[in-house]
Amino acid sequence: MSAPEAGWRILHVDLGKPLPVVPGDGDAAGLQLVFWLDGWPLGRCEVAASDLPLSAPTLAMLASQAVAPAVGGRLFAGDFEAPMPAARPEVRPASDVAPLLACRRPLSALRERLAGAGAAGASTADVSVVVCTRDRPEALARCLASLRSSRARPRELLVVDNASSGDGTQRVVAGMPGVRYLREPRPGLAIARNTGVRATTGALVAFTDDDVVVDPDWLSHLARPFAEVRVMAVTGIVLPGALESDAQRMAEDRMWSFNHEFRPLVFDARYFARMRARGVPVWHIGAGANMAIRRDAFTHVGLFDERLGAGAAGCSEDSELWYRLLAEGWRCVYEPSAVVFHYHRAELDALRGQWHAYMRGHVAALLVQFARHRHWGNLRRIVLQLPFFYAVWLRDVVRRRKVEGPLWWAAVSGTVAGVGFYLRHRNTPPVA
Q1: 282-318 pLDDT per residue, tens
Q2: For 122-348, CATH number?
Q3: Domain boundaries along the sequence of the chain
């Protein structure tokens, strides 16, 4: 694969409508197609600029290939279930695609199934939404506008202003009736999220970030899996809001590469037991920019660890909480119908800093998890898996992706910094 190019365009295609002819775009390096049916995301693919334009039959062929796993997963059980991340595949019979092939009109059948699921959608009347922000009033205004135009309204919408340097955030919230404002002067995303939990009252607490836009049905889809009482956390898919720069392309290919599955996943005690010796990849559960937590979960396992997250170690306060939930036998669900659009860092310097912080927080979280649970797989991840990953990535940088060199170094240096951060803060209380 060659180095990422700037100027990729995103086109959302509704399969419930006649497929269009997709023209060429001389200013774009390529096109990412995202396929939907009645507001449910089903798959995506990428097309190089040299392969444009696309006729309607060609687009139909690309769509059928991209959405087949999700369509099969929604219509038929068993063979079409998504593989669990990083797990060795279980011994099972060869996949039988006959049911999907025999279905004469799979999209029509799926449409009926999805309509039934939508009609039985979860109530959001007892859901509190918390948006944590710091010094990004324009991005926050965009995020709040999408939340306020959602088809499902939450019990309350709270903005936690995390140690902003001015009053821009407060002015944005003041212009939006129905949105509460709360200032948290102590820096740290985990601190801000804990403040949001304490200040809200809903049985479910949903979290998103100021650099996202939520889909109109985001909240109802995010709340639906909580109908199962063992489910304590639900995450959704994160689609790119733009891919206009090299940095955004690299962020999508590297930082958000885990979030490309369009079929639901259930992470439970059985999965945790299978993966514990190798290191449970809880980061595959989703992203903190698109998650909801049952309030009872905080009673069972505690609040977010304030040593982790942006403004402290760098990230992973969300995945470390999911780790605690799985270790206690609860379930976490990834539901891709709950969609947010994330605006990745557009500048390479900003992305490099984010990657450094991401890996620092990731390693610190692994050490926190080992200290709490004595599960050796967390150390295995640091000692064996990450060095192997970096070695393969360095080979790719040397051969084909020289533009990713600074990003590779940011990740490696962040890994080393994560060990140092944990050693300095290992005796700090997880919640102030």
Answers
A1: 999 999 999 999 999 999 999 999 999 999 999 999 9
A2: 3.90.550.10
A3: 8-88+97-117, 122-348, 350-425
